Every structure is written in C-alpha cells, then in structure tokens.
Amino acid sequence: MAKKFSWKQNLIVLWFGTFMAGIGFSEVMPFLSLYVDTMGHFTKGQLSLYSGLAFAASYFMTAIVSPLWGKLADKTGRKLMLVRASAGLALVFFLMGTATNVWQLVAYRLIQGVFSGYISNANALIATQVPKNQSGQALGTLVTGNVSGTLLGPLLGGTLASIFSYRLTFMITGLLFVVVFLVTTFLVHENFEPVQKEAMMTTRGVIKSLNNSQLVFGMFITTMIIQAANNSIAPILALYVREIMHNSPQTTFFSGVVAAIPGIATLFAAPALGRVGDRIGSDKILMFGFALAIIVYIPMAFVTNVWQLIGLRFMIGVSNASMLPAVQTILTKNTPPHVTGRIFSWNQSFQAMGNVAGPMIGSVVSSSFDYSGVFISTALLVVINLAMVYTNTKAMRRSA
C-alpha cells in the first residue's frame, strides 16, 4: 500500500514540476523579441534574426544534451536529474533577467537548454514506478502538466510582463523554479538501483535491447512531427487573430485566450483518454488524435471570427491529449526498465527538434502562402504522421 501511495505522490509533485517547466520554456515567447529590442538599436531584419536565435537556442541545446543526461540518469537515478534540472532553471532565469545585451541573452538561453531534462526524467521516473496496466492513465495525467504549462505559459508571461516588466518576469519565474526544486528534493521518492559502469550499455546495445526498435524510433519521429505541428502556427497565431478581428483593440486579450484554450482541453481530456488507451490500445488512441487534428486544422484556415478559432483550438487540445500521452505509453511498454532513462531522453531530443523546426516551417509557409497556408501545411504534416504510425504499429495490432 505504501508503494502505491508513493507513485501517486510522485505523480502529483511531478505534475506540478512539469507544469512549471512547460511554463518556463514557453512564457517568454510573447515578449522575447520585445526584450531583445530593448538591448540595442536594430533594423527589422536584425531584430528578426536575433529573436529567432534567442528563441531556438534553448531547444537546439536541449536536442544535443538530452541523450547525455539520459545516460547519466541510468547511472545515478532520475530524481537527481530532476533536482539538477530544477536548480539550473532557477539560476538561469535569474540570469536572463540581468542580461544587458543580446549575446548574453542567447548564451543564457543556450544554458537553459543545458539544464533541460526535467520533463523526460519525470516521465521516466513515473514510467518505471507505475503498474503497466495503469501506465496510460498515469502518463496521460503527467503529460497534461507539460502541455498545459507550455500552452498557458504565453498567457501568463504576457500578463506578468504587462503588469511588471520583462526583467522582473524572468525573476518571478526563477522563484517559481526554486519552489519546484524544493518540492522535488523533499517530496519525490525513488527506489533506484544504479546500472553498474561495466553493465552500462552503448548506444548500439540500447538499440539491441529493444524488442521493436523500429516502433520506438518511429515514436521518436512521431514526437518530433507532433511538436512541429503544434509549434508551426506559433509565429503567426497572434497575427492571424489580429487579421480576423480586423485590428480590434481586444486582439491581445483574445490572442492569449486562443493560445491558452488547447491547454485547458488537454488538462481535462488526457487522463480520460489515457484510461481508454489502457483498455483498447494506445496505438488506436494515437491514430484517433491524428485523425481529429487533420479534421480540425483544415477549417482553421477558413474561420471568419475569433469564436470559431477558439472552438477549433479547443478540439486541438483534445487531439494533443490523445497524441503525446499515447506516444509515452507506447515507449514505456516497449522499453526495458534499465534503458528507460536513455529512451525518454532521446525522445526529448526529437521533441526539441520539433520545437525548433515548427516555427521555422510556419514562418516560411506564411511568408509564401499567407496565414491560411500554415494550417493547411500543418494538416499535411499530421497526415504524414498518421500514415507512418499506422505502418509502425502493425506489429502491435497483430500481437493484440
């Protein structure tokens, strides 16, 4: 009974931690370019370039270092990695609030990427503690923290920046990560048996230990495309809202609502869809999510008022609730416990690559085909993902 309580307590604490990590990585998005603009006299082209560098830096570094942290997690335990990540993020947010030029800011954003790993290690810790028949529900609940934080972050960041200042917003976020560090240190419990150095597998050994490496690596690509699709509309969302509201003075408020509404839907839908996935198969839930996303993204290109867009974005939140937790559950059920840290960290690297690629795709498409083209291209991305997952999960369906 104590063990059951322990993993549920961990789930509650780590939900809060992943929620804050999601906020930390996303809340600066509404004002990052404006913060850059305060650091010098830049042309429009320079401002776009420096803002892009500052935006992508943390995700770029995350993609590089995540496998290294995952290997270390298999040696030292996931809790130590959680403590390391939360302490580092607290420090780096304070530093970003003190930046005096754009290159300092880019450097601090790179350091932020170095201290990544909270989310992947939280997933790995829960995945190794929860009974297999409840992993879909547990990981579905946990992923709502990250997804909701990521989607609510811009709304919180924009609000704090408008009430206080850009610099003080970074400081407040740093204080929140101090809280994450404290609750993680004192309230998360892990019974961890370290993998001995001589037993530590090479990358090739990890791949050979997988029963279905094609499926696992297919899930990595799936994660990357999900993130790219979610983030492809990030650069143009506020501009699209302004266009359909005809430059209304309420544009800023409704942009925040449009950005936040999928997180609210995900928060309520993910645990329920996780339970359904445990009964009927996570692959079926994943493909349902893709189908729903395709159906929803296409009409987004043709909305005529903001309420239509809010309704469709709510449905995207339901789609997200079925996709990301299902991927995590499939990885959990197809990964030996002694390499879970490595597999989840690799998955985070692909997630970070999607975070970098998505806005770049959105920016290029919107400049060539207007805002509506971004939603159509995103739907095409999801179609490709659906076809790939259908092929990769054939073995799962046969064994079921």
TrEMBL record:
Keywords: Cell membrane, Membrane, Transmembrane, Transmembrane helix, Transport. GO terms for molecular function: transmembrane transporter activity. It is a multi-pass membrane protein. It is found in: Cell membrane. The keyword Repeat does not apply. InterPro entries: MFS, MFS_dom, MFS_sugar_transport-like, MFS_trans_sf, Tet-R_TetA/multi-R_MdtG-like. This is MFS transporter. It comes from Lentilactobacillus curieae. The keyword Cell membrane applies. The lineage of its organism: Bacteria, Bacillati, Bacillota, Bacilli, Lactobacillales. The chain crosses the membrane at residues 12-35, 47-69, 81-100, 138-156, 168-188, 215-241, 253-273, 285-310, 371-390. It comes from the Bacteria. Signal peptide: none annotated. Residues 10-397 form the Major facilitator superfamily (MFS) profile domain. GO terms for cellular component: plasma membrane. Gene3D superfamilies: MFS general substrate transporter like domains. PANTHER family: MULTIDRUG RESISTANCE PROTEIN MDTG.
